[in-house]
Amino acid sequence: MRERDRKKLWALAGGRCSLCKRHHSEIELEEAHIVAREVDGPRGDPHMPREHLDAYDNLILLCPNCHGTIDKDAPKWTVDLLKEMKKEHESYIQQLTPDTVSVLSGDVSVQAVGGDDVAGARINKPTRIEPGTSITVEATDTRRVTGVEIGGSHERS
Fold first, then answer.
1. Which pLDDT belongs to residue 155?
2. Of the residues 16, 50, 105, 123, which has the fewest C-beta atoms closer than 10 A?
3. Among the listed residues 66, 28, 25, the one whose alpha carbon sits nearest the alpha carbon of residue 156
């Protein structure tokens, strides 16, 4: 799979499963094939050119549970249905209002004293970290310090 296709898939899916919408900070996601790579796989097609199998148009981002569900009942989950689901999911991601996606940029400086765990920036909702963002955390008398913690207790928008 080309890196360009992989980045496009993850970006347009918003790092979320295209079916259940779970975010990659909650569960490991899989880059699944709409038309199987193998002819005898789910939705396999002997006429599909090999170079198109790993292309962006034939990939969908899914969590392991949804991936398994879709592949176990392949006749129900047709190629057309999966492509429409992918399209609707990407449209949903693009329509997220700016207040549901945070932007972290510039220089972020955090000072903390004492405590078991200190996070300079705790991110619990979809957040875009701009290139060049610098996070500095100064902490004394702490057990563990992280510059950025993604995940944890989630507030869903």
1. 42
2. 50
3. 25
Q: Domains in the chain, please, with CATH? A: 3-95 (3.40.1800), 102-150 (no CATH)
Q: Which amino acid is at 109?
A: S
DSSP 9: H
Q: What is the pLDDT of residue 145?
A: 73
Place of tokens 């300079």: 120
- Please give the full DSSP string across 39-100, using - where no structure is assigned: TTSTT--TTS-HHHHTSGGGEEEE-HHHHHHHHHTTTTS-HHHHHHHHHHHHHHHHT--GGG
3-class secondary-structure state, position 148: strand
Distance CA 80, CA 43 (A): 10
CA distance 34 to 37: 9
Rounded to whole angstroms, the Cα distance separating 128 from 156 reads 16
Residue 150's pLDDT is 60
Per-residue DSSP letter, 1: -
Tell me how far apart the alpha carbons of residues 62 and 77 are, in angstroms, rounded to a whole number.
Answer: 13
pLDDT averaged per 10 residues in sequence order, the chain, 157 residues:
89 93 90 94 93 95 96 92 96 74 74 70 70 79 71 43
pLDDT of residue 154: 41
